[in-house]
Amino acid sequence: MKYILYILTLFLSLSTYSQNAKQHIREGNKQYEAKKYEAANASYKKALEKNNKSAKADFNLGDALYKQKKYAEAIQQFEKFAEKTTDKAEKANAYHNIGNANLESQKYKESIDAYKKALRENPSDNETRYNLSYAKKKLQQQQEQEKKDEEKKDDEKKDDKDKKDDKDKKDDKEKDKDKKDDENKDKDKKDKDDKGKKDDEKDKKDKPGDKKDKGDEKKEPKPNQLSKKDAQRMLDALNNQEKKVQAKLKKKKIKGQKVTIEKDW
Questions:
Q1: Any idea what the Cα angle at residue 131 is, between residues 130 and 132, rounded to 5°?
Q2: How remote is the C-alpha of 203 from its chain's centroid?
Q3: What percent of the chain lies above the pLDDT cut of 70?
Q4: How many CB atoms lie within 10 A of CB 56?
Q5: At 68, which helix (H) or strand (E)?
Q6: Is-contact 89 122, C-beta < 8 A?
Q7: Which residues, 6+ apart, have CB-to-CB distance to 90 below 8 Å?
Q8: Alpha carbon distance 43, 32 (integer Å)
Q9: Closest CA to 28 of 14, 17, 43, 18
Q10: Could you tell me how far CA 29 lies from the centroid of its own chain?
């Protein structure tokens, strides 16, 4: 008797529990219709707290999250619903919504997979077929854009490399120029130093009392050091001069002999 009473009490308790979950779902539906999606979200969660096996609460919660653009959470709820329900049409709807949530998140590969699952459950769903075609087109555009972006990055890398190479060449030229300038400066400095040394040597040579070069010494023989040739030449010159003097004297004598002296007697 007590056992029967316990079973009856448990049944009434579960019935009341289930009734409360449905009540929260109804409240959530009203809030959803009024576009109060956050409030509806809270109501559906309360329904699941009362009855975590409520597939309807899972599906409606997924819808409310989708409307709030909480796509990742919405996908989780639709997946839970798809696992719980055995109805092919309801399962197709869940996958259709999973596809939509991925499409909004620009996860085109995932959305294509979800639409294909939906069509396997309900091949006659033209809306899902259209969405699948649209997702494939978006995926193609995405891949083309990724390819363009990759090519652009490659071009930018190439441009950066070319700019770097140009900069390196310019730097090398500047280094070479600086090196040549330094070499020229060193050469100029060396030339100046050499010129300074030569000037110093010249100044030393030109100073009084400095020794003259060998050529000057040859040109200016020291006194009393005449060569034999020079001495003979000087002697011959003196002899010639003596002869000329003697000749003049002799001439004068001859002339004197020819002078006629008149007699005064």
A1: 90
A2: 61
A3: 74
A4: 19
A5: none
A6: yes
A7: 55, 59, 81
A8: 10
A9: 43
A10: 58
What's the pTM? 0.55
Residue range 130-161, pLDDT digits in tens: 999 999 999 999 999 999 999 988 888 888 88
Residue 139: CB atoms within 10 Å: 16
Q: Hey, what are 236's tokens?
A: 């011959």
Structure letter (DSSP) for residue 211: P
**Which residues neighbour 80 within 8 Å (Cβ) at sequence distance 6 or greater?**
58
pLDDT 10s digits, 47-72: 999 998 888 999 999 999 999 999 99
What is the helix (H) or strand (E) element at residue 88, kind and residue range?
helix 88-104
Domains and CATH numbers, the chain: 1-85 (1.25.40.10), 88-173 (1.25.40)
Annotate 143-185 with DSSP letters as a single string: HHHHHHHHHHHHHHHHHHHHHHHHHHHHHHHHHHHHHHHHHHH
Contacts of residue 45, Cβ cutoff 8 Å, sequence gap at least 6? 61
Closest CA to 106 of 59, 130, 141: 141
Q: Which burial class, exposed, middle or buried, applies to 230 when counting CB atoms under 10 A from its CB (0-12, 13-18, 19+)?
A: exposed
Which two tokens mark 185? Answer: 């400066």
Give Cα separations from 166 to 75, 163, 171 (angstroms): 53, 5, 8
CB-based contact 57:30 (threshold 8 Å): no
